[in-house]
Amino acid sequence: MRIGDRTDVDGRLTAILAGALLALCFVTGGSSQQNGVGTAVAQLASLPILVHAVVKARSRARLSAFRAPIGVAVFIAGLPWLQLLPVPDWLWTLAPARQALAHDLTAAGVEHISLHWSLSPAATERDAFAMLPPLALFFCTLAIDRDAWRALCAWLVALAVASLLLGFAQAGAAQDSVLNPFPQYAPALAGVFANRNHQAAALTIGLVLSVALFVDARRRDAAGGERSIAAIPFALAALVLAVALPLVGSRAGIVIAMVAVGVVLPAAGVPSLARLREHRPTQWATAAALGLLVAGIYVGFAWVQSDAAVSGSRWMLTRETVRLAVANMPLGGGFGSFVSVFQQGTGPETLARNYINAAHDEYAQWWLEGGALAIAALLAAAIVLARTLVRLVRRHPGSPARTTGVAAWSGVLALLVHSSVDYPLRTPALMAAGALLAGIAVAAARAPSTMTHEAAPTRRTSPVAGASGEAYGGPR
């Protein structure tokens, strides 16, 4: 990373801080329960990193270049804080569910209560602080350049492999071993995670990134006219993660990995159209990859349909959550209030099963907890991600920024798809990884070009330069 002829020391420091914070989130944030000392340490550590990243991004004129993504990120992170504010009586009782609650409180003789937006202010406050590490990582990616993006992606692959290796070590140890961070659960190749589905999500991200980094390393070797071993570690990581993923025992993880890998290769420009037209083995390999993608989509739909037919299934939880979300419109119950709102609002036939800690559908749960503003936040995030993908695909297929950006975008896609049947983003480790990847994708989509095949970057009048010595905000 260089600015002109001067080594970008601040950029290296920002990347190191981001990598350290990401590792801390992985080590301490493998559970969706956010009341441990480890998660509190990660949240406190993220505050100075967030300030450093914002100052660094501002000094490089990056804040103005990313107005829309930054606005959406701050909007999402600020929603829990907004829900801690008091609201007038007429607004608090606007939702039908709150009218019933107010009637019950009056019947019980409860008076002079403090009417906050959130029905569970303490839980909402915990969710607000949980947003700090992802927000810090997002700003870090905007303050660094393409070499650091690639390094952080490689670091995320390493963390996924480390979690897998920890899972294998757990399999040969006792349940209460020091190797098992959650001794209340039997070892299940979950690594740093309490839920094996979340371990599968981490492995899927590692697989997608390792495939893209392998492609990027091979292209760099070809561009330099030499052979190196840079691509070998990523090939080995992809092989290990692909073989181990079915062993974790997550059906959703396997399906999402099939789809994500099927998306990342063509979006990164592999193979080229010329090679696809002329090289028969490439044609067969492409056909096999398309078959894998179609099979993954088919298996995913089949699994959803079979799950919907089972009593007490995820589909039933989603329907019940949506019903309660409508009853709590427009304010929602407040972030972190799902358990209490669900238990109070649903029927005994739903609660007959085990303790329900999440809707297993992140979108329905966000609607229930955040109300109308949560829907607006999700739509705004979807628009930003869609525009980011369009920008990435428009770049030259050989662009390093396109390869890295598409890999990061595919990792975010894997988490978003998984969120429709589970709650990976309730896990601090995966929430941090998702924010990091989203930031890399957004930044890569707007990075200045270093490829001769791409259009020359648009020059800015600002003297602040990016990593390539050009003003930031190249071809879009």
Description:
- The chain is mainly alpha-helical.
- The N terminus and C terminus are likely disordered.
- The chain contains 19 helices and 2 strands.
- The protein has a two-stranded antiparallel sheet with strand order 1-2.
- Strand 1 and strand 2 form a beta hairpin.
Mean pLDDT: 81
Order of helices and strands: EEHHHHHHHHHHHHHHHHHHH
Helix content: 55-70%
Helix tally equals 19
Q: What best-fitting shape do the alpha-carbon axes yield? A: globular
Query: What is the terminal-to-terminal distance?
Result: 22 Å
User: What's the β-strand tally?
Assistant: 2
Low-confidence stretches: 1-7, 450-476
User: Cα-atom Rg, whole angstroms?
Assistant: 23 Å
Q: Report the portion of residues in β strands.
A: under 5%
Strand order of the largest sheet: 1-2
Largest sheet: 2 strands, antiparallel
Summary, kept brief:
It contains 19 helices and two strands. It has helices at 9-28, 37-59, 67-82, 89-92, 96-107, 121-130, 132-142, 146-171, 196-224, 232-248, 251-267, 273-278, 280-308, 314-327, 338-345, 348-351, 362-394, 400-418, 428-445; strands at residues 2-3, 6-7.
SSE map:
Blueprint: E1 2-3, E2 6-7, H1 9-28, H2 37-59, H3 67-82, H4 89-92, H5 96-107, H6 121-130, H7 132-142, H8 146-171, H9 196-224, H10 232-248, H11 251-267, H12 273-278, H13 280-308, H14 314-327, H15 338-345, H16 348-351, H17 362-394, H18 400-418, H19 428-445
Helix pairs in contact: 1-2, 1-7, 1-8, 1-19, 2-7, 3-6, 3-7, 3-17, 7-19, 8-9, 8-10, 8-18, 8-19, 9-10, 9-11, 9-18, 11-13, 11-18, 14-17, 17-18, 17-19, 18-19
